[in-house]
TrEMBL record, chain A:
Family per record: Belongs to the amino acid-polyamine-organocation (APC) superfamily. Spore germination protein (SGP) (TC 2.A.3.9) family.
Organism: Paenibacillus phytohabitans
This protein's name: GerAB/ArcD/ProY family transporter
Membrane topology (UniProt): Multi-pass membrane protein
PANTHER family given in the database record: SPORE GERMINATION PROTEIN A2
Subcellular location per the Swiss-Prot or TrEMBL entry: Membrane
Residues annotated as transmembrane: 12-30, 36-57, 69-89, 109-131, 143-160, 180-201, 213-234, 268-288, 300-319, 331-352
InterPro entries tied to this protein: Spore_GerAB
One Pfam family recorded for the sequence: Spore_permease
Main location: membrane
Keywords: Germination, Membrane, Transmembrane, Transmembrane helix, Transport
UniProt keyword annotation of Transmembrane present: yes
Keyword Disulfide bond: no
From TrEMBL, chain B:
Primary residence: membrane
Protein name: Ger(X)C family spore germination protein
Top-level taxonomy: Bacteria, Bacillati, Bacillota, Bacilli, Bacillales
Alphabetical list of PROSITE patterns matching this protein: PROKAR_LIPOPROTEIN
Localization per record: Membrane
Pfam families assigned to the protein according to its UniProt record, in alphabetical order: Spore_GerAC, Spore_GerAC_N
Native species: Paenibacillus phytohabitans
Cleaved signal peptide residues: none
Amino acid sequence: MSKEIIPAGQSISIAVLFISGSSLFMGTSGQSGNSSWIAIIFAISLAVPLMLIYARLHVLFPGKDLYDMLIAVFGAVFGRVLSCLYIWYALHLGALVLRNFGEFSKTVALTSTPMIAPMLMIGLLCIWVVNAGMEVLGRSAKFLLLFSFIVIVLIQLLSVPKFEYHHMKPLLDSGWGPVFADTAGSFTFPFAEIVIFLGAFNVLPAKGSATRVLVSGSLIAGIIIIFVTLRNLLVLGPDILSSLYFPSYVAVSRINIGDFLTRIEGSAAIVFVTALFIKVSLCLYVTCNGVSKVFKLKSYRSVVLQMGLIMVYLSDFIYKDIMEMQYFAYHIYKVYALPFQVVIPVMLWIAAEVLSRRKSSKSI
Amino acid sequence: MRTLRRVLSVLVSVLLLFSISGCWNYTEVDDMSIVAGVAIDKNKADGKLLLTVELVDTNGGLDKTQAGFKMISLSGDTMFEIVRNIISITGKKLFWSHAKAIIVSEEVAREGLIKAIDWYSRDTETRSDVFIFVSGEKTAREVLNLNSTTQAIMSFELAQMMRDEKYISSAPTVEIWDFIDKLETLGNNAVAPIVNIHVKNGQKNERVEGTAVFVEDRMVGKLDGDETKSMLFVKNLITGGVLDIEDKHGTPSYSLEIISNQTKLKPRMAGGRLQMQIETMTQTGLDEVMTVEGFMKGETIQDIEKRASERMEADILAVIHKVQQEYDADIFAFGENVHENQPKIWAKVKAHWPEAFADLDVTVSSKVEIQSSAKTTRAIRLGD
């Protein structure tokens, strides 16, 4: 089997859609009311150093993915234990994102269709694309990003007449405390979730720059998220914003151009689906890749179908209802995700630096 | 073997084509009752909610140029219960996306609107861009019932009126979404337009004029059409309308068409008391001169402008004082304005804002500018 390589432009597209995916319709955590955009800027500036660490790992281990690194650094047994944790994280994250979509379609779009039906459809699509390979995913991401970008910009422009700029005032209404809480929230969800991409680093060209992919990916996604958050804030205002499950959907439903261009929220939801498709597919790929590395399978393709179906079922029973989902996403997740996103990667990075120094001093 | 596979895949595709195309639970348009609007009353007999829905009758014949309507009333404990129980009368599920108007009776409004509108904003089948009205008559359904005399779907007519409200400015246009937004915002009280039945010469028509003033979700009072116009001036929501001005003898003789208006609110501390400075700047066109003397003889444009400005200042002050003293409802969003522009002062007055609003100092300075005199340069001259 020839090795799959995807060029930088396509990996950036994957990264952008991956990061902005859930936030496009879930919104970001919003305790700080009208200052949430400041929190996002902080979260981006926190995320960039983390991206540099991730990218450094790629320099230390060119052409290797997260699982190879873990096994190489922490040994065959402990490395595999950590790999299993990451397999769980990727599988769980994919299930969470699928569930977000399920709740979205159940709540606003297809109210009497059982949630499992749309989730299974997307799940099967993801299984298909992952089975076809990362190159297919990369190419579709590049195309879908262009498409999503056009839709997002168009909707942004159409909602300008509904903007009420006084919602921005007063700046920092509730003080710095909630802003920092929100920074932590936005940092773990969605920015640092890109740690999943480490599990697919083997598809980056060995000489290629992971820094470029990760940093530009998170910056572009950050700008998109800031614009979407600002739009929601200006259209809805901080009070209503905090009461909605899917603020973007409601904000778009307010668009009314001359009583003619109305009710376009259904079409806008297409963007959510495309971004989510990329996000779930990447999670699925990383899960399968991990399983194949841990159990030394010849190819990850043999477990795609199984893992994909597990992911769909997991997403079906992972929460009881949408209230639980909301609580988990904004309160528990930022603690739960921290080891996966920061602690283990930083440990891995320090250990890898030490090892590589030792190796280079020996060879001299 | 290859042909078998090919035939099988064709068969599977054909099967899929028929089974997965279309929606999971589609509804044909003739299986739905399309709701145009609702009226919410309190049932006299048992004190429960009484809902009256105006349905668009889709069974129109070829000779009809306009869709017909149907009225159904039902009472119950909660809105949603009634809405679902109506199916037992219509036999069809109600379709809410095209509803345009909610009319609530004054009685319901005075008891609190949350119980009537929460379902409407929460449910997924309804849309939050529906207009809300308070009935000026005894019940809300009387207004909807006018459709039997006017032969038109009342809710759609009311919605049309709200769209053209920008030319009169005698009632606020309030979508249910704005209403809830105001309920949630601190330092901002909600308003809703009042709809009356207008009877002249035995002709009955609906008429939207005036404002219902709310404190929290309970209606506390009314403003009439002129007061509403002054209120809209303060809220910077004036987009059109007419100012009628007296001449120097005190008889109304000039009409100024409002072209645009800009209102600025400036909260500030003056002598230890919170003061709200209101500045309005109105561009108008002189569109009617009802005297033969004309407007150049004896009276200059500046005189008319000055009189209009003074009149407007007095009107605005009067309505603010009325609202402060009688209703104590911050419908002008003064609180929100203080919050946004003077957050430090707001932190002090936030806890007792209703009282602070009631003795807020207000100063008004209005400027009315006449930009044009429409098509003619002078008054009609009597030549004899």
